Amino acid sequence: DNAAASAKIHVLDPRLANQIAAGEVVERPAAVAKELMENAIDAAARRIEVETEQGGARLIKVRDDGTGIAESDMALALSRHATSKIETLDDLEGVSSLGFRGEALASISSVSRLSLTSNALDDPRAGFRVTAEGRGMEAHVTPAPHPRGTSVEVRDLFFNTPARRKFLRTEKTEFAHLEEAFRRQALSRYDVAWTLRHNGKTVHRLPPGDSPAARERRIASLLGKTFIEHARYIERQVGALRLSGWVGLPTHSRAQADQQYFFVNGRVVRDRLVAHAVRQAYRDVLYNGRHPVFVLYLDVDPEVVDVNVHPTKHEVRFRDGRTVHDFLFSSLHRCLADTRPDAVAEPPA
Ligand code: ADP
Ligand code: MG
């Protein structure tokens, strides 16, 4: 007797549909933090504060001083396929915001206790809070004063999806992932002031500053002094392709590929084509089995890169991959050519 096969077709209730979609983007607390920080950046925030408890499993709160959400839009903010960032397919092709799918808040709020408080006005007594309730996830909006900007509070992630909750690791591991997500965002926007707090303690407090010295201070504070001491600054532009950032010298290679940051138009990506170009460029200067460190920024025309490849947007597709690959390889190869490890350091043990 196959109940599933003989059952009538019906439309899933919104909460269940969102919970299924959440499977793709809300892997763990770090993924929630990433989505909330990206929303704050998209809202043009100058200050972003992240507060977490128990590795994010108990609480993830992101507060920003961005544009805020108008009262009339509050009810839509938590519903699926609702976004202020694109309207047409043309917009999608040239999209420059980090978000555009209109799914994150709906997904997250279907698997946690989420409340969003926001104020789009300069009056600090104004503001509203929205939650999505029941199987229908009906928006419930109440007045709640908030300074201009937005706070999103996510409590008890996966409390209603035990299968997912089982995959949560220790508090330490989850926080390590969350901190890594924070690093990536903080390395993508130097003009924003960032703080990260965990269980009431400040873990990172990063003042804003776009000058080269301020950028190096931030990198040192996030990745360690040795990173910046053993890195070389690179800047190169060919046509519409621009590469800048810090490439680690072979003297500071690592046993693991754990300090490799590559941003395309401000979005951190793990891309095979990029990884290959970098590996090739380091091939002659790095010992086998060692991994380079780098913080690199590639800026291209948004029209020549497709960011809608995967729901988490960790992958991108370049229209002309060959050109991008060759540009990266030649830029890095030139920069590294005179840094053979045998010329500057003892081989690593
Ligand atoms: P997306 O970012 O893909 O548009 P989200 O579900 O992450 O989808 O957010 C839905 C909408 O809610 C956004 O398009 C934006 O209009 C609004 N929003 C979310 N977070 C913020 C924020 N921190 N500040 C201002 N608006 C926000
Ligand atoms: Mg978003």
From TrEMBL:
Domain DNA mismatch repair protein S5: 219-337
UniProt keyword annotation of Translocase present: no
Organism: Halomonas cibimaris
Biological function: This protein is involved in the repair of mismatches in DNA. It is required for dam-dependent methyl-directed DNA mismatch repair. May act as a 'molecular matchmaker', a protein that promotes the formation of a stable complex between two or more DNA-binding proteins in an ATP-dependent manner without itself being part of a final effector complex.
Protein's UniProt keywords contain DNA damage: yes
One function term, GO molecular function aspect: endonuclease activity
Record key words, sorted: DNA damage, DNA repair, Endonuclease, Hydrolase, Nuclease
Name of protein: DNA mismatch repair protein MutL
Entry's family note: Belongs to the DNA mismatch repair MutL/HexB family.
